[in-house]
Design a protein that fits this description.
The chain has about 550 residues and is an alpha/beta fold. It is about 45% helix and about 15% strand. The chain folds into three domains: about 5-25 and about 145-245, Glucose Oxidase, domain 1 (3-Layer(bba) Sandwich), CATH 3.50.30.10; about 40-140, Enzyme I, Chain A, domain 2; about 250-560, Phosphoenolpyruvate-binding domains (TIM Barrel, Alpha-Beta Barrel). It is built from 23 helices and 16 strands. It has an eight-stranded mixed beta sheet with strand order 1-8-7-3-4-5-6-2. The protein has an eight-stranded parallel β-barrel with strand order 9-10-11-12-13-14-15-16, surrounded by four helices. Helix 1 (about 40-65) crosses helix 6 (about 125-140), helix 9 (about 230-250) packs across helix 20 (about 515-525) and helix 11 (about 305-315) crosses helix 13. The chain binds phosphoenolpyruvate and magnesium ion. Magnesium ion binds next to helix 17.
Length: about 550
């Protein structure tokens, strides 16, 4: 008898109800002793063609999906085209090993390397299994197990973890929720679920044992998954979700609290593909343009001419509005081949990343700033530029000087490192504005790698220690008349968004799909409500107590089913 209730981490809010459909990878392991018939050249050609077919298919799926999914899948296609992997496959085939077994073994070696590297690379090891299965299936003439082609009714997708290739072309009208056994708040499943607006629960122990077809009610806000709920429970959840959608749709316009305190609501974008959803959701500008997403698959630094076009497209779409561009944030979870750290790093998240890499490659920063300055000239967007991973005032000064030399007067810094938050007053004296990156700030405050699913419980921006750092930063910014936004994933949590406003944060930037919820939450609470919620959260001893204490001061969230 299976439990009737499982709990995981709610990473994409909303309720979804439908039968469980389990995505199982059952591409069988090719036999260890599989040998080819003797024509190594022909066998190698088969292997190369299968690898290329899979790479091209992944890239095509990404192009079709656009946005962040395109970048994720382009990175996967690159893995399938890795020359070292191809060389290992060739070596094994040369020794008489059949193509499918050679691919299987070569991927196993690649996987070990990634796992040993730790951090972002280790987290990508699961993606490798997906690519391997696709190549083996192509070589063996097997159909890849996947999603029902023509489902009779909307369903809940249950999986160990979802590979980007599984999720990008999903239709939110057919898949009502995701439940995965693995994954944390910054896993691909979480990011893509939020982008699609599909409720999702990750890190849900026991999900693998849910019998297929079991009716599931998934709450992507609380992380609770109910198995075979009774009709009343489903009816209540569906009614609440419908009411919430109607209430959210009724709030529009610029972000503001119930008593009229303006809080600009901005969008996080990774490139031109994210413009349309951001505009449709009423974004008042861009609070974080993650420029590295444009160049994930590049081995040579992009020239300023190449960069200019992509930047101009975003600026023109937001003419008259604020667009905050983050210069390339390379390293750790976002490695760029053309901006590598000098040597393999034992702890990439603590290594030469973000602004630190620009100290080593100033010419790459100069080219990017030149492209931004030129793109900004032709538009009326209010372009601001910020540096990631700034730890010291000295780095902020260096970056500001580089921006001004390029003709970009508005330069700011991201606050992602506890040292920067603790000494925010020193930074405020030498920079134009702050944008708090709560993803990294949480990672460094709790010393919990954001890519490590097992540490998901610690990667909680509600932790009072993180809130204290946000409070210090906002106070320092306020004291010197500087803007202080939040652009990490935490800004997309309606309750936390209110807490941030209560702490003195002046703008919020998030995935476009989160804007309606945050807009509605702010519109139902006054600045004083937000301040009380912030004080209650900071007075709590744990993340979950902080969340509960803040919500108790924000009663309208429950009316909105948020
Ligand atoms: C952050 O760290 O919160 C942030 C917004 O930057 P990224 O997630 O791209 O590191
Ligand atoms: Mg960051």
């Amino acid at each position: 008898m299976h439990a009737d209730r499982l709990a995981g981490l709610g990473v994409s809010p909303g309720a979804g109800y439908g039968p469980a459909h389990r995505l199982v990878r059952d591409v069988p392991e090719p036999p260890r002793a599989a040998r080819h018939g003797g024509d190594a050249r022909a066998e190698l050609l088969r292997a190369e063609q299968a690898l290329e077919r899979v790479a091209a298919d992944l890239a095509a799926r990404g192009d079709q999906a656009g946005g962040e999914a395109r970048d994720v899948l382009a990175a996967q296609a690159m893995m399938a085209r890795d020359p070292d992997l191809a060389a290992r496959v060739a070596e094994l085939i040369e020794q008489g090993v059949a193509a499918s077994r050679a691919v299987f073994d070569a991927f196993a070696g690649y996987r070990e390397l990634l796992a040993a590297a730790g951090g972002y690379l280790a987290a990508r090891a699961a993606d490798l299994d997906d690519i391997r299965d696709r190549v083996v299936a192509a070589l063996e003439g097997l159909a890849l197990p996947g999603l029902p082609a023509d489902p009779a009714e909307p369903y809940v997708l249950v999986a160990r973890d979802l590979a980007p290739a599984d999720t990008v072309l999903l239709d939110p009208a057919t898949v009502v929720a995701f439940v995965t056994e693995e994954g944390g708040p910054t896993s691909h499943t979480a990011i893509l679920a939020r982008a699609l607006g599909v409720p999702a629960v990750v890190g849900c122990a026991g999900a693998g044992a849910i019998p297929p077809g079991t009716p599931l009610l998934v709450d992507g806000s609380t992380g609770v998954v109910r198995l075979s709920p009774d009709e009343d429970e489903v009816a209540r959840a569906v009614r609440a979700a419908e009411q919430s959608t109607a209430l959210l749709a009724a709030v529009s316009g610029a972000g503001a609290t119930a008593d009229g305190h303006a809080v600009p609501l901005l969008a996080n974008v990774g490139g031109p593909a994210d413009i349309a959803p951001a505009l449709a959701a009423g974004a008042e500008g861009v609070g974080l343009f993650r420029t590295e997403f444009l160049f994930l698959d590049r081995v040579d630094p992009p020239t300023w001419e190449e960069q200019q076009d992509a930047y101009r497209e975003v600026f023109e779409a937001f003419s008259g509005s604020r667009v905050i561009v983050r210069v390339l944030d390379a390293g750790a979870d976002k490695p760029l081949d053309f901006l590598p750290p000098p040597a393999p790093e034992p702890n990439p998240a603590l290594g030469e990343r973000g602004v630190r890499l620009f100290r080593r490659f100033p010419e790459v920063l100069a080219a990017q700033l030149e492209a931004l300055a030129r793109a900004a000239k032709g538009t009326s967007a209010r372009v601001q530029v910020m540096a990631p991973m700034v730890a010291t005032a000295e780095e902020a000064v260096w970056f500001g000087e580089a921006c001004r030399a390029a003709g970009l007067p508005s330069a700011g810094v991201m606050i992602e490192i506890p040292a920067a938050a603790l000494r925010a007053a020193d930074l405020a004296a030498v920079t134009g504005f702050f944008s708090i990156g709560t993803n990294d700030l949480t990672q460094y405050t709790l010393a919990a790698d954001r890519e490590a699913g097992a540490l998901a419980g610690l990667q909680d921006p509600w932790h009072p220690a993180v809130l204290d750092l946000v409070a210090l930063t906002a106070a320092a910014a306020g004291g010197s008349g500087r803007d202080c936004g939040v652009c990490g994933e935490a800004a997309a949590d309606p309750a936390l968004a209110c807490v941030f406003v209560g702490l003195g944060v002046t703008s919020l930037s998030m995935a476009a799909s989160a804007l309606p919820r945050v807009r509605a939450a702010l519109a139902r609470h006054t600045v004083d409500d937000c301040r009380r919620a912030a004080a209650a959260a900071r007075a709590a001893g744990t993340a979950s107590a902080a969340r509960a204490a803040a919500r108790a001061e924000l009663p309208a969230l429950a009316d909105l089913s948020l």
